[in-house]
Specification:
By secondary structure, this protein is of the alpha+beta class. The protein contains 6 helices and 8 strands; from the N terminus they run βααββαββααβαββ.
């Protein structure tokens, strides 16, 4: 997949500020209805879904720092409001590297807390977060505790599916070939304790680092 050039950086930076302002306040009604609430990086072009064989590169430099500062501000505002609820809650910044555009702020209450606490695989090999990699944001990032996880893409033994689910036999064969090629690459296998329908095992492919940042 080819990377596409990003133009109009001043316009992007204005969009980042609009996104930050629109998401500073937590939606308590949404949180109480679903026991979770999250803010993704909803800034063009990084929130777009590619429908052609190309993709935009992840944010870098000043643009990346502006987005991360937005996530930090969004986190801080949510923490102030959640502290007032007087009940346990989950609140973390999910900081993905190098897939930075997947980063987000996630909060949860009640039965969703355990789900998010155990949502990502923790490898035996620990890594230390390096705030100095983020320039002027280093002092703010040092106020957080950062736990290391793997950023993974997940598939399972039912990923290809049945031939009758495809528009043509050619599409089915092409997908089979793609999956056979994929499964030869290094990955982590997890066998399910109890099958979920036809799913008996999952295949997880490491795509980078994931840092879970929070404050006490």
């Amino acid at each position: 997949m080819r990377n596409r050039k990003i133009r109009g950086h001043n316009r992007r930076q204005k969009q980042i500020e609009s996104w930050r302002q629109e998401n500073l306040e937590i939606n308590i009604d949404l949180l109480e209805k679903y026991n979770r609430e999250f803010v993704k990086i909803f800034v063009h072009p990084w929130c777009d879904i590619s429908i052609i064989n190309s993709a935009f590169p992840n944010p870098t430099g000043k643009t990346k720092k502006l987005i991360l500062k937005g996530l930090l501000d969004i986190y801080e505002n949510r923490k102030k409001e959640l502290d007032k609820l007087g009940q346990p809650f989950y609140l973390k910044i999910w900081l993905f590297e190098p897939r930075f555009s997947n980063s987000q702020v996630v909060c949860a209450i009640k039965d969703r807390i355990d789900f998010y606490e155990n949502n990502f695989f923790k490898p035996n090999q620990e890594k230390l977060f390096k705030p100095e990699n983020y320039g002027t944001l280093k002092p703010i990032l040092e106020r957080f505790e950062w736990d290391y996880r793997l950023d993974e893409d997940h598939y399972d033994n039912s990923t290809v599916g049945a031939s009758e689910e495809y528009a043509s036999s050619e599409d089915f064969i092409e997908t089979q070939k793609w999956f056979e090629k994929l499964i030869k690459k290094p990955h982590r296998i997890e066998k399910l304790k109890e099958p979920i329908g036809d799913i008996i095992e999952s295949y997880s492919f490491n795509r980078g680092d994931l840092w879970l940042g929070g404050q006490k």
